[in-house]
Amino acid sequence: MEGKKDMLNWEQKTLVSELISGLEAAKKLQARLGEPSSLPPSSSSRAAEMNEILMKQILSSYEKSLAIVNWSSAPPVQLILKAGSIAPVTLIPESPVSINGSPRSEDFLDGRGSSNTHRQNHLFNSKKRKMLPKWTEKVRMSPERGLEGPHQDDVYSWRKYGQKDILGAKFPRSYYRCTHRSTQNCWATKQVQRSDSDSTVFEVTYRGTHTCSRATAAAPPPPASPEKQDTITKPPIAQKPNDLLESLKTSLTVRTEGLDEGEDVFSLFPNTPPFYDYGTPNDYFGGLMESSPIFDVVDWFNPTVEINPEFPTFLPDSIYY
DNA sequence: CAGATTTGACCGGC
DNA sequence: GCCGGTCAAATCTG
């Protein structure tokens, strides 16, 4: 009982902290956006970069908060993000924490003869894993604007650890986990499944939030996966819209300029980026597009866009119990 | 050579 | 027994 209380306190603390953080970042961003571009052209890109950082920070804070809310409260939360040019994306938190876990109950040594230590470790982690908050995001891709959704998480590096054909599904499901699982004990995982009804939609199910300090994850490594077209991924921050479009048409794989080709599939895996890390998306699209074709998030907070400039509403207003 | 992906096998839940 | 999720050896990539 006491424990629960402590937990709540911790959660509340974290929640408040995250919200405050997001709020402050938002204020700054709002101020920046509101400011007439008194900046010299030269610093405009830097300004854009800064905005990007702030934006990521905001999203991160809110996502964490959401995760916490979802995790600590049973009522399902449906977050629907709507943004002018962006297609609606749905966050569908699944089982908050109901499932008590033990994927692989008490097994000390499986058929594969792994070491005991590993097994026990695994056991522990498995249980823990099931306790992690879980939610699903539907990300739609449209040739016109590329990927649409809150995938600000290319910043994270994911490592694919499996792929399975799912009964009744046209496309296989891919399993990813944070690259820093072992080094930083980060248990964030995600599953990516292409919708069979609408192949432009990808259902990304996340479990657990990142606890790794992406500081080390830095480098925008195209964690992508040169796998088959199945394992979709969203273009990191792709390059030319044309290429993107092309890729989308073909197999939803996108190449990143800097990368030597290879099928750099994008990774649509948003999560909760502690902070910004990538380069400046805007640079990629230069004047080709007004805003990132894939990552319009910035617009979500841009007063000039159709959406409510007051991002806070982006949360409360869109959460339904 | 280190790190990532592929892929078949294994495991627990239903 | 089937199915989804995960593991880990083999393989690939830069």
Automatic annotation (TrEMBL):
Signal peptide: none annotated. Its main location: nucleus. Coiled coil: none annotated. InterPro entries: WRKY_dom (IPR003657), WRKY_dom_sf (IPR036576), WRKY_plant (IPR044810). PROSITE patterns: WRKY. Keywords: DNA-binding, Nucleus, Transcription, Transcription regulation. Pfam families: WRKY (PF03106). It is found in: Nucleus. Residues 212-240 are annotated as: Disordered. One of its GO terms (cellular component) is nucleus. It comes from the Eukaryota. One of its GO terms (biological process) is response to ozone. Residues 153-210 form the WRKY domain. One of its GO terms (molecular function) is DNA-binding transcription factor activity. Belongs to the WRKY group III family. PANTHER family: WRKY TRANSCRIPTION FACTOR 30-RELATED-RELATED, WRKY TRANSCRIPTION FACTOR 53-RELATED. This is WRKY domain-containing protein. It comes from Brassica oleracea var. oleracea. The lineage of its organism: Eukaryota, Viridiplantae, Streptophyta, Embryophyta, Tracheophyta.
